[in-house]
From TrEMBL:
UniProt keyword Membrane present: yes
The species this protein was found in: Haloprofundus marisrubri
Protein name: Uncharacterized protein
Pfam family, one: DUF8108
Domain DUF8108: 49-118, 192-257
Keyword Cell inner membrane annotated: no
Domain Zinc-ribbon: 10-32
Top-level taxon of origin: Archaea
InterPro entries given in the database record: DUF8108_C (IPR058421), DUF8108_N (IPR058962), Zinc_ribbon_dom (IPR026870)
Membrane spanning residue stretches: 87-107, 139-160, 166-186
Keywords assigned by UniProt, alphabetized: Membrane, Transmembrane, Transmembrane helix
Amino acid sequence: MVLESSTPNFCADCGASLTSGASFCSQCGTSVSSSSESASGASAGATLSPFRQRVREYTVHGWEIEQDYGDRVVVIKRGFGSIPAHVLIFIVTGFTAGLANLAYAWYRYSPGASRAELRADGTERWVDGRSSSRSTFGVDLATAGGVAVGILLVLMGVMAMSSGTVSSLFFGLLLLAAGVFVFPPIQDRLNREQSLTTFGRERHVDTESAADDERCVVCGKRARGGVTRSFADKTYLAGVPLRTHEQGSNSYCHHCVVEEDIDTSAAKDRQVVRELA
């Protein structure tokens, strides 16, 4: 006797095909219920849990589900790089006929794409994709891409400097500096917080599990099992922080985090009702 999978073949929300055992739809982020659950809860219209709501909010804003482990989900936001970065690359490496721009676009779309890991306990971590972006030979694609681009820029810099003119010498030095800068060991040494395409003032919030000795800023109880949210408001130039306007961290216990998620969801529902009224 062949056992049928309890996972439906298509998403009930957007119609996308589903893989066997999937917990979320990779297209819209909607939670996947078994066939028996769908039959019993179709009329009731079961609401999403706070964790699944967060996953769906990410997908609404252009993120894709890359890995689904049930209690944690890795989402990815692909892109081809910002227009200012492409313009700068084309000006510096115009003689490559756009090959440098293609390499940069590929890097931003695959190994260098933004990734975040969402956990059911409220933890959100930003990841660089190196643990999941590997070739069939186990080679880290982000590191390999950085090395390849770095070597290419260095070679182009040497070729540009060989012509002997002042302008070519200047561009050659720029290419050499860029080539050295993109090498993964140099990047790790500089410990850049953002990518080269980050310009201007930005505020970022990172969430991680709270330490056992932390206290909740809301109720004053131990934050064990809760989360610590670190925030930073900085001005960046090509990913390098020039000025820190504000930074700090707050810890919350599990109870207050759940209450906050419920209050946030209720506030969004009230806002929708007001807009439809």
